[in-house]
Write a structure and sequence with these properties.
By secondary structure, the protein is an all-alpha fold. It is built from four helices and no strands. It starts with a helix and ends with a helix.
Amino acid sequence: MNEADLAWETFEFHCDNVTSLENTHIQNVAKFSMIRDGKFHGSKSEACNFLNSMLSCLDKLIATYNKQIISIKEIVLLNKSDREILKKRGVQLHSLHTLLNTVSTLSEEMNKFKSEVKKFKLDF
């Protein structure tokens, strides 16, 4: 396997991980909203355990976003020396730059949300 194929497979691996973590995050946000809005019917201990689990999921999601950013940058860099990398996959360079900006924004927003969850947990 050449360097370009490895970089692309690494990118796809992180995309798959992000998808799984985002699905978990969506479920977590719904449960977090219930806790925050006082509609959670479990104990305070259960809510705290959930918040810890949610924070762990957020850590994993942010780390995976950052890995995805690194893999996108690597593909962009490799593309400078071999323009066929993206052509073979039907991807345009500007699409990767757009994706890079989007994932960077998602990472920043998840960090902000994580701070909100931490603050909520402290005040809970």
